[in-house]
Design a protein that fits this description.
With 197 residues, the chain is mostly helical. The chain has one domain (2-190). The protein is built from 7 helices and no strands. Helix 1 (2-21) packs antiparallel against helix 3, helix 2 packs antiparallel against helix 3 and helix 2 (24-38) runs antiparallel to helix 6 (130-161). The longest helix is centred in the first third of the chain and has 35 residues, at 43-77. The protein starts with a helix and ends in a 7-residue tail after the last helix.
Length: 197
Amino acid sequence: MKGLDSLYEVMRFLHILPVIFMSAPLYNLIVVSERVRFGKASVQVDRYLENVLRGNSTRCYIYQLTALFTGVFLVALHGDPLSSIFTNQVILLKWILLGVIMSMLSVVHFNIQPRIDDLFSQVYGDSIPEDIAAKLLPLRTLRKKMAGVCLFIVILIVILAVQVYTPVDTYLSVLLIALAALFSWRVYKKGAPRGWL
């Protein structure tokens, strides 16, 4: 039994760790907000930024799949039937929300980012021509909005995670969700120059 308890704790750790690593939407929003402060900059700055953002997609898929599979193992190791993934409302909601952020990531990875990359492939020289900049703006704005929503959903998943087997007071849940929404909105609008403050 002790070995099973240790395995459960290892799985819990492996389940929580990818969620920490899925903070990419937070840091993407911070990086994008910091980029705006540069104003007009060399195209190399934008190319570097796009390389960072593009690379986060693949990492995020790995973290999301790790959270998914370790979540299944946690249910089994807890002694619950796998059907509780669908009967435990908190677990089901976590799965649905994970599916939503995976879908949003897929839209960015397979639709928005390739279009941005295609526009950058048309840039020769040290600055982005106005016509290409005008086409980049709506794509980057949409990607930023989606990162803000993803950040909120990741925080929401964490709020739910602490309630899988021990629900907290409804008022506390509502307060935490409101704070998560407020924080996500603020990071989307201004970055996080002073962290929580």
